[in-house]
Amino acid sequence: xxxxxxxxxxxxxxxxxxxxxxxxxxxxxxxxxxxxxxxxxxxxxxxxxxxxxxxxxxxxxxxxxxxxxxxxxxxxxxxxxxxxxxxxxxxxxxxxxxxxxxxxxxxxxxxxxxxxxxxxxxxxxxxxxxxxxxxxxxxxxxxxxxxxxxxxxxxxxxxxxxxxxxxxxxxxxxxxxxxxxxxxxxxxxxxxxxxxxxxxxxxxxxxxxxxxxxxxxxxxxxxxxxxxxxxxxxxxxxxxxxxxxxxxxxxxxxxxxxxxxxxxxxxxxxxxxxxxxxxxxxxxxxxxxxxxxxxxxxxxxxxxxxxxxxxxxxxxxxxxxxxxxxxxxxxxxxxxxxxxxxxxxxxxxxxxxxxxxxxxxxxxxxxxxxxxxxxxxxxxxxxxxxxxxxxxxxxxxxxxxxxxxxxxxxxxxxxxxxxxxxxxxxxxxxxxxxxxxxxxxxxxxxxxxxxxxxxxxxxxxxxxxxxxxxxxxxxxxxxx
Length: 480
Prior knowledge:
Elements: H1 10-31, H2 39-58, H3 63-76, H4 78-96, H5 99-109, H6 116-131, H7 134-152, H8 156-173, H9 178-186, H10 191-218, H11 226-238, H12 247-257, H13 262-280, H14 282-288, H15 293-302, H16 312-318, H17 327-345, H18 348-357, H19 363-381, H20 384-402, H21 406-420, H22 428-437, H23 441-444, H24 449-464, H25 472-479
């Protein structure tokens, strides 16, 4: 930090945030879930402009300092952008190679009617973990499960709660998830280190949710599951389904266990899936490439691909976006970095951090404040990506100043901003899932046990202090 950093009162520093929130509310009203395709990014740049104007006009902050801060922020997101593009490639190749359809097919086969909610949560967790997308999971398998649950006599709120709990669990710990990559990037923590540390709070939260769904399922009288059988048959008729295809995720798991860099793992996994696709699904590759298999392979990696399966839910499931589908998220990350750099370079982030620090005495209040900010950001900005970025940027320096690890920040951010987004009716996640499942947000909210428990679990673990470390010199300062 420069010694001549302007002394900006925290109330003034809140002005760009207030502008961001106000404009974001208007954007969500006008664009809904499509806001991430450009409107939210525009709002971020406009709010950044407000921050720059305040700093330069009223506090005489030189543009060189602000420009340098923005540049420093953008430099840190390079690895995240690379990983996001690889995620796009792997999501397309895993789907069209039959790897994901095989996982879904066998998951459907083990769906027991008397354990419906329990199994629905597990299946959604599995699909989301593989695809790295809660939205895709809810919009595909979730739709089928809502129909099955209705046929079994389950209230739609319970079914939607099980679906969303599983989908957001898988999304939260998947190395293919853009929110997971974003949170680890904002916290400046290696991706798989971030995921491993999240397991401490995520697994207990999910286990508790599963127990609740299991008890409710066992005490409910259910009937057959014809829709599940039909969905599984549709997958089998579209793809070559074989347990041998499970070798791809198995080898990927081995690579993860070897702790290779995330980019290397994703690249090798996408390469494996592409080779499998050429040999196991030749008709699909030829269809995508209009008879040219090499063209089909390349399109699967970088472009939107779709198959007409004759089943709307199945066709939606197998549609992929490739690397092109990641451009909106990459655009958002760049704009968010510019906004964060404008706040930092203009001295506003330091002002906000100092104001927050005055009310924080240790790990408990620090984590609780982070979790509360993540939830508030979801309600204020209406977008989980913005919430992750804002929460991370506001608290990043504070965690360093207090001597706590970056992985505690990235975990606390995900325990709040990622999972609570779907519980806010006007948030892009809440609106999307409510529309897709045709269940009002407030109807499923009480049954999204994983999403409700995760923030509380994060605070609980902070109070216990399990595997939360502080540098010795900071411990002495707290004691004195």
